[in-house]
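# step 3/5: fold
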Amino acid sequence: MLNTHFQYFSSPINDIKIPNKFTFPFYYEPHPLCEIATKEIIDYLKIQTDFDHNFGLNPSKKGIPIGKMFGVLVVKNKKNEIGYISAVSGKLAETNTHIKFVPPVYDMLTEDSYYLKEKNNLIAINSELESLEADINYNLLLSENKLAKNKAIADIQEKKEALNTAKKKRAIRREKAFNELSPENFILFKNELSKESLDAKHFFNNVKRYWEHTLKPTEDKLSVFTKQITNLKTLRKSKSVDLQMYIVEQYQFLNIKKEKQNLAELFSGTSVQNLPAGSGECSAPKLLQYAFLNDLKPIAMAEFWWGKSPNKEIRKHEQFYPACQGKCKPILSHMLSGIEMDTNPLLENPAIGKEIEVIFEDDQLIVICKPADFLSVPGINIQDSVYSRIKQQVKNISGPIIVHRLDMATSGLLVLAKNKEAHKFLQSQFINKTIKKRYTALLDGIVTENTGTITLPLRVDLDDRPRQLVCYEHGKPAKTNWEVIERKNGKTKIHFYPISGRTHQLRVHASHNLGLNIPIVGDDLYGKKSDRLYLHADTLDFLHPITKEKMLFTKKSDF
């Protein structure tokens, strides 16, 4: 394949050390070479005239503003020259072909492609369906049939109720006759009642047959339309599934050994219809695919956001982001096999050498200060946690112990129960929202207002766990009150008062463009990584499980 997207660095890079291992794509600090490549792509984006797209950076620009994720891959070519290639996630300006950016793994938009032909066939089926469902005669028949059916249902129901009423009356008459008539006369009377019953049933069946006969002509006319509609819907579904299957088979991903696997193989166990939307269209797979096809050795990679933030996810202009978990992890696990990578920092225990400070302890509970970067409960890969340490260190402790949690990155106060009864009482206060909590945070920017309330519903990002996103359709209510404490050196110290306790609530409410739009300093998920997340739970106010006395604890942050 002709290598047309390899770019030499415009800036000098001779003094920059080449990394020995490739970037771990799901958690990384961008290598200096990636930072330089990113700057060069940003410089290009600011002045380019190769395509027309509204990134939401110019208020006067026409079109719907849509930000995009871009990626850079530092590579070495066959001549041992260092350069880079770049990519954009998804299509850009309604096309996949760009001078600066590598092509997709599979281009569905090429002229006369099977995808476009089948897409047009589906559009034609939809058009025919819409035409049939809008047909005047069809809709008149629908109305006529509905009206007649409603009359039939009402009439049959009325006759059925009359039948049941007559049956009950016959039962009463039968019982009365049994008590008053001679045996011979009772037999005669019972025969009369049986005849009445048969006549009534016969009449009721005649009513049902009448309505079947009356409705049939209209239903026969309707069936001409409904059969066509049903057949078209069946055809549409079949063609849609076939097209989806065709597409996933065209996405053939390489690794450095030139081994291929398609989307269906990489997402085995997931039906074609349930594959994450846009799988294979992110920057990282595009970059690696192009590198392997053109014998370019991957050295380092980074992805960054350019443009307006989405309404749901948190994406900041010009900020670096890791590859997503849901769509990219299965793909990149294959594509990067055989390449030596940086170690996964998420497998390393950041709590080594850190101690839990006990603030208060009695025979019912313990109040501790959890250090930053310390799990509240054991994780999938790391067992060291508040729970495991307290269980080992504290004698005569039983029950669930953990009443509430703090994010691993967050420091601050936690109350722990020493027995099941205390746990139940303390937990009920969290459930009933009678416990008062306050957090101190340092925000990476200036908040102009002094106080406020944020109400943004949250749910997990299914394509990129554990990140949370704002979702008014499926999100759970989340409310945070806040007040500014100090503004200094371009940053804002703030107090948060969470009314609800959603995962990452304060972090998302701070960073999201519909919240404060300023991330917490050191937030590696929703802002920029630093030495720690500058979020600390400094106040806890609750009732003691035995004495019922108010207990107020404070632990000032060290920032």
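# step 4/5: annotate
Residues 367 and 415 are 4 Å apart (CA to CA).
# step 5/5: archive (pending)
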